[in-house]
Amino acid sequence: MFRPSHESLLIQNAEIDRLDLPRIQDETELEALKADGSLLPIVANESLKIEPSLDPSRRYCRPWTLDFVNDLSQAYYNRFHQQIQLNSAVRTVKVQKKLRRHNRNAAPAEGDTASSHLAGVTIDLQRRGMSKEQIVWMEHYLFYMKALGLVEPEEERRHWCFHIMVSGHYSEWRETQDIVPLDHPDTEPAETQLAAGSGAK
């Protein structure tokens, strides 16, 4: 449903530019952003697990991206009673360049189509191992979020993951919602699970 494209990369980078966020160059810049609270840790919990090979120093993202991860993983857990897996989060330009040497399909480390992981706004969630029902649920959830202008998703078939850039508008939108666990989530569509009792703004 969300095929990777040049246009999608442009959209992701336009949002990063709108937010005036830096593309993180190296570990020094990464640690500085952690220290001042610009990047927050992503912590495994009942609804979210983390790929063990993901470097602990890169299990960080922007605050609104963290809210999105926690909201989505809780809605997914409510529906399927399974954890969703985080495969990737923030990266530095140095890491992205190294990745490009091993994966020619990886986004560039520079320019107007650079990887949005470099700004800490993007996460990759594992698609491999999901049932057809779970994939459809995820696609519907992301379609709803994209329609509101809150995410720019891609389905990466080569690595079987959902690459999701989260807009800074997510925090503003989230404040208008009543996000609560449901007693019977199996009967609710994805968007209602996310924003029970409140209409989209």
Spell out the helices and strands N to C: HHEEEHEHEHEEHH
Distance N to C terminus = 24 Å
- Number of separate structural domains: 1
CATH topology descriptor: Muramoyl-pentapeptide Carboxypeptidase, domain 2
Strand content: 5-15%
Indicate the CATH class: Alpha Beta
Low-confidence region ranges = 180-187, 195-201
How is the main sheet built?
A: 5 strands, mixed
Helix content: 25-40%
Report on the architecture of this protein.
With 201 residues, this protein is α+β, with helices and mostly antiparallel strands. The chain has a single domain (6-176), classed as Muramoyl-pentapeptide Carboxypeptidase, domain 2, CATH 3.30.1380. It has seven helices and seven strands. The chain has helices at residues 6-18, 27-35, 63-80, 93-102, 132-147, 169-174, 190-194, and strands spanning 40-41, 48-50, 60-61, 84-88, 122-126, 151-156, 161-166. The strands form two sheets. Strands 2-4-5-7-6 form a five-stranded mixed beta sheet. Strands 1-3 form a two-stranded antiparallel sheet. A hairpin with a 4-residue loop joins strand 6 and strand 7. The chain is globular, with a radius of gyration of 16 Å.
Supply the key terms.
7 strands, two-stranded antiparallel ribbon, disordered C terminus, Muramoyl-pentapeptide Carboxypeptidase, domain 2, alpha+beta
